[in-house]
Model the fold of this input.
Amino acid sequence: MPSLETALSRGPVVIDGGLSNQLEAAGHDLSDELWTARLLRDDPEAVADAHLAYFTAGASVVLTASYQASFPGFARHGIPAGETANLLRRSVSLARTARDRYAGPERPLWIAASVGPYGASLADGSEYRGRYGLSASRLREFHRPRLEVLAEAGPDLFAVETIPDVEEAEVLVGLAAELDLPLWLSYTVAGTSTRAGQPLGEAFALAAGVPQVIATGVNCSAPEDVPAAAALAAAATGKPVVAYPNSGEVWDAAARRWTGRASWAPAEVRSWVAAGARLIGGCCRVGPAGIAGLAATVATP
Done:
């Protein structure tokens, strides 16, 4: 199987959609602070089924259920460190199980170990604000153990995603580079700034000289923000761009519900590709049907 980096040099590659909405559609309650990570312990087969649904829909890359998984987060639920490490490894093995079960048209399939921001572990919307008041060394202490365990589990790469500010991005890119595993770096943005208010051109530039970073871009953001952000990422790094925005609806952290109308549409991918996007998919509220439409659009000259 070719590396994902090699595949990107040949054309766009489709990522999956939102894991949480696929699990909720199957009847699972994700209302507690562990979110999708809870099912790594309580119903791992459901996670494998969700990954398989996206492979079947046409995705070539699925992201593991480790976004919200962390040693401190699981510890707050009485889960000891040893079991947490096993659950992190399981997040990768479940994606591998789905890949092994896939029986559709032959194509390369990759597994990206999802690495969410520190704010995700707080389950209070902090990942959309950043600036947690933590030092770089404290952020390293939080992130390093789970990155080490995920790397040992053997994914094809890290998906360092939904990062709200440059300070945390620098820490995560540095850690992933030390572990020498390929990664993409994806910010959550507001217009042409990170959620913490830093200019995106500067935010992307920190990855320009890091060989382990194979793509930079945006996710968990409004679809209309993708073209400008993608162009900035391509100009700042010279690397392929990753883009997988939300449906267009807005998460109300206080009410813990989505509001507004969906604006994500498979046809929009053409403007993303024109701006430099090569890894393309959906995030929250984009399901297998949307990914199937995107895959069909990409396949059409």
Observations:
- The longest strand covers residues 157-163.
- The longest helix spans residues 81-101.
